């Protein structure tokens, strides 16, 4: 896949931006707690504002890309991020809260743009391994970004690290703008001159099924992070948390690489259901080493599940609205992460620490079942086997209703 013209440079520049974006909540949390000397609840408010902006801004930016082109949107968002991160070290809490919401709305759309470009730069047979590689990139961004921020904050001030994160986001966004990757395939170029399809023509049961499964996947992932900490705290081994999370991320990378090399695919609902089932018993691990082993099994399924979601969105969305569709996917992913932590936290408070894994796994299973049912539901007046088609791409109906559930994650 890296031999595809332009793919290696796109993934390299995108990784820089995505690693910084995955670390933005961490650096803002540390800034509020350490520099402003406020509570973690206050820090959570800033994180929630940023995440809300991300969820609302995804489809809006995607629609702007469809209409105005990639470079114009990238330059606008780069300018907004530069202004926000330069101002962070001097903003008091109230203005920071409002600025975080605006920054989320105008976040550099590195992840959705990468997915659009992959759909345009690859052939039908290349898309599954390409999206698997993109999911691996998302996992690497989470393995590198937040830990690096914590390490840097320990050595310098939170304000300086905020500037560094902002600089990386700006550099990644400018790099993507300079590369200006194609967002439509050669056989889809005419879509830009055709009338924009109505939303109800492509946002049907199958696409909604994919978005539900994307939401469920990240709800499971966000909840699993909290459940790991809760179980280890109960065992008096919180120091193992970093190691367990690292095992979870590394096994996801391995799973994505293996899945991308397979000759056959699995539907998203099945992958998500297996991920949910594998997550349920993880809380039974009595200590850190056993928990490392317990999360390795569901970890192998994370990147494959996320990759099938992106693949399905690219197949179900007509070329002229692919930006808006990938934006909706990003919004579903962000919403899942935002709700997964409080949902699992409530389960832990109401039961036992191991109940966090049960709640996370159950959320994934519920999304898988819902996605399966929706994907089997025919649109009024439309045969079950029909789905939106674009030039050069087949319908995703034969793939279990247009699979895939999160990523990239990003996460």
Automatic annotation (TrEMBL):
Residues of the region (Disordered) are 377-411
The cross-references to Gene3D superfamilies, in alphabetical order and at most eight, read: MFS general substrate transporter like domains
| Source species, domain of life | Bacteria
- InterPro entries for this protein: MFS, MFS_trans_sf
Residues that span the membrane, as ranges: 38-57, 93-110, 160-179, 208-232, 238-259, 266-284, 354-374
Membrane among the record's keywords? Answer: yes
Q: Which UniProt keywords apply?
A: Membrane, Transmembrane, Transmembrane helix
**Cited Pfam families:** MFS_1
Which PANTHER family does the entry mention? MAJOR FACILITATOR SUPERFAMILY (MFS) PROFILE DOMAIN-CONTAINING PROTEIN (PTHR23542:SF1), PTHR23542
What is the name listed in the Swiss-Prot or TrEMBL entry for this protein?
Answer: MFS transporter
């Amino acid at each position: 896949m890296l031999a595809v013209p332009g793919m290696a440079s796109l993934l390299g520049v995108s990784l820089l931006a995505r690693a910084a974006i995955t670390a933005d909540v961490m650096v803002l949390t540390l800034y509020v707690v350490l520099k402003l000397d406020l509570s973690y609840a206050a820090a959570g408010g800033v994180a929630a504002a940023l995440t809300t902006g991300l969820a609302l801004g995804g489809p809006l930016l995607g629609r702007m890309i469809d209409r105005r082109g990639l470079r114009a949107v990238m330059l606008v968002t780069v300018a907004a991020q530069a202004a926000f991160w330069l101002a962070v070290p001097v903003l008091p809490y109230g203005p920071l809260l409002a600025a975080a919401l605006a920054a989320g709305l105008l976040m550099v759309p590195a992840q959705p743009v990468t997915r659009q470009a992959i759909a345009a730069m690859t052939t039908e047979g290349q898309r599954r391994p390409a999206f698997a590689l993109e999911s691996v990139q998302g996992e690497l961004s989470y393995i590198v970004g937040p830990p690096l921020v914590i390490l840097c904050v320990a050595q310098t001030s939170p304000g300086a690290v905020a500037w560094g994160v902002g600089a990386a986001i700006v550099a990644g966004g400018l790099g993507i703008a300079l590369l200006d990757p194609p967002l439509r395939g050669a056989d889809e170029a005419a879509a830009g001159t055709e009338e924009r399809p109505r939303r109800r023509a492509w946002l049907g049961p199958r696409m909604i099924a994919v978005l539900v499964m994307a939401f469920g996947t990240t709800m499971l992932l966000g909840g699993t992070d909290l459940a790991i900490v809760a179980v280890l705290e109960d065992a008096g081994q919180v120091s193992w948390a970093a190691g367990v999370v690292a095992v979870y991320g590394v096994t996801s990378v391995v799973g994505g690489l293996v899945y991308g090399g397979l000759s056959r695919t699995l539907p998203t609902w099945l992958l998500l259901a297996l991920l949910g089932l594998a997550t349920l018993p993880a809380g039974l691990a009595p200590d850190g080493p056993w928990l490392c082993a317990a999360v390795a099994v569901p970890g192998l399924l994370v990147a494959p599940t996320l990759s099938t979601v992106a693949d399905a969105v690219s197949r179900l969305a007509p070329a002229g609205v692919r930006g808006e569709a990938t934006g909706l996917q990003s919004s579903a992913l962000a919403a899942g992460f935002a709700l997964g932590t409080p949902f699992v936290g409530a389960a832990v408070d109401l039961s036992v620490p191991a109940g966090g894994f049960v709640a996370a796994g159950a959320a994934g299973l519920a999304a898988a079942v819902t996605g399966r049912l929706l994907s089997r539901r025919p649109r009024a007046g439309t045969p079950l086997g029909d789905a939106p088609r674009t030039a050069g791409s087949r319908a995703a109906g034969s793939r279990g209703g247009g699979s895939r559930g999160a990523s990239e994650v990003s996460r």
